[in-house]
Design goal:
Elements lengths: L2 H11 L6 H6 L5 E5 L6 H17 L3 E5 L6 H9 L6 E7 L1 H7 L12 E17 L7 H10 L5 E4 L5 H13 L4 E4 L3 H9 L5 E5 H10 L2 E7 L24 E9 L4 H16 L1 H10 L3 E5 H25 L1
Helix pairs in contact: 1-10, 3-10, 3-11
Length: 322
């Protein structure tokens, strides 16, 4: 059964509980979509492609607003505090939100219950990459150098306790090495740091650099997944290289603030489901190297809850190591 068909059935089942007047009056004006990372990063790129497709279904302008800083915490905080009227939505970056909530030092002003997951768009596998002229040709080269120089080789992330940060910690444990970890506020800064020669290696996601990887501008050492990415078919996986426990990815989807009326949520859900399945959106996402993983309704809610349990385990471990 297609994602849209499942959504229509769910909407029909909820029809008796919805307020027709409220649903018919929404939306009367433009909608804001908060992205908690800088413009130019893979989250921002995917969000803008999806927003453009959803505008057609929603019948109103959807404005992407970047609220970057503190590894996404600034944007997520503003998103959580927004009026639950359907006019402010936000992108949910997992496990980024999970680890902020789980880290007591972050003192997050929100919990996982502050957000309602509506429609997931992307599941972007992790990627460890270096500049094309880097001396590290393979993951083995990088790990060998890291063992010889503990704490000397710099490895960067897109934020503290992001999926990239967790991936570094996983590799350090699995390979018994130590990197000098550098945290940036998003993919654009990370790219500039490595390509500018300021950082040795990036722990990132395939979608952030797919085109540069395919052009040979940079070199992928390993994809942190069980299966090779269609956007990086020549890059081996951690499973292939004997690190089956090192699995890391980032999911991104649309959410609403807690308290948003269910009848408005159904309108939002229907519009974004249509957008995710829009052939033009699919083509654009393929063109930029972002892997689609549509989830909606009960499926997305279950993923949202289950991932938090997994993130709790890894975050507790990560906090002990820092």
């Amino acid at each position: 059964m297609s994602l849209r068909r499942r959504t229509l059935l769910a909407a029909s089942a909820a029809a008796g509980l919805a307020s027709p007047a409220l649903a018919q009056n929404y939306p009367r004006r433009s909608v804001q979509l908060i992205v908690a990372f800088p413009a130019g990063g893979s989250t921002d790129v995917g969000a803008r492609i999806l927003a453009a497709a959803a505008e057609k279904a929603l019948g109103q302008t959807i404005t992407v607003v970047n609220k970057a800083g503190a590894g996404g915490q600034i944007g997520f905080t503003e998103f959580a505090r927004a009026r639950p009227d359907g006019y402010t939505l936000g992108f949910l970056n997992l496990p980024g939100i999970n680890t902020i909530v789980l880290d007591p030092e972050r003192k997050a002003a929100f919990t996982m219950d502050s957000f309602i997951p509506v429609v997931n768009q992307v599941l972007d596998p992790g990627l460890i990459w270096v500049k094309a002229d880097s001396p590290y040709k393979t993951l083995a080269d990088l790990l060998e150098a890291a063992k010889k120089q503990p704490g000397k080789i710099s490895a960067c992330t897109t934020g503290i306790l992001s999926d990239d940060h967790l991936a570094i910690l996983m590799v350090q444990e699995a390979a018994n090495v130590e990197f000098r970890i550098v945290h940036f506020d998003g993919g654009a800064q990370q790219l500039a740091g490595v390509m500018g020669g300021h950082v040795d290696v990036a722990f990132d996601n395939v979608g952030s650099v797919a085109k540069r990887l395919q052009s040979g501008e940079l070199r992928g050492l390993v994809v942190t997944d069980n299966e090779r990415s269609k956007f990086a078919p020549n890059v081996p996986t951690t499973k292939e290289l004997g690190f089956a426990t090192v699995i890391s990815n980032s999911t991104r989807g649309v959410g609403a603030p807690k308290g948003t009326p269910p009848e408005i949520l159904k309108v939002i859900e229907a519009a974004f489901v249509k957008a995710v399945e829009d052939p033009e959106q699919v083509k654009k996402m393929n063109d930029v190297g972002l892997a689609l993983k549509p989830m909606v309704g009960a499926e997305y809610a279950k993923y949202y809850a289950d991932l938090h349990k997994q993130a709790a385990k890894y975050t507790e471990w990560a906090l002990k190591m820092r």
